[in-house]
Please model this.
Amino acid sequence: VRVTQNTLGLLFASSTDNALYIQSLLNNSVPFINPASGHSSLRPSTARNVSNIRPSNQADIYGLLFSLRTILSVQRLAFFYESNDPDAREALFSLRYYISLLGLSLTTYAESTLDPYQIKLAAEKIAESNPSAVIIWSNPDNLASGFLLEASNILPPET
Model:
């Protein structure tokens, strides 16, 4: 995609990979509608040409934590994420901030790539921390399913 002043607009950006275009969009006042990622780099507060449709990662994390606390009475959380995902790292930063504000505790966090051994180590680390719930922040579905499979082999059955 080549962004110039003649570009009508960028309608959809599915990840922070598209953040490379942000500077061109800002420089050329191209309308940027519906960044599908919640990453802050795709939603600069000073840019008049950016129209956000979905919530930020910060809003996603706050809403999730608030719901876990108020609806499910969860107090102890763990966080699993893809190590190469900038959205996930931003979500972890927000999680650590909001967890204390809401009176929750983060038992641990673990990151992984698609490597089965790394997934196994992450699942073991989280299981050892004995959380009430695990937040899985993963774009590749096979990473999330790999983690769930490993966790089901480690965690004791619910009583």
About this structure: The radius of gyration is 18 Å. The CA atoms of residues 8 and 30 lie 7 Å apart. Strands lie at 32-33, 50-51, 76-82, 105-112, 133-137.
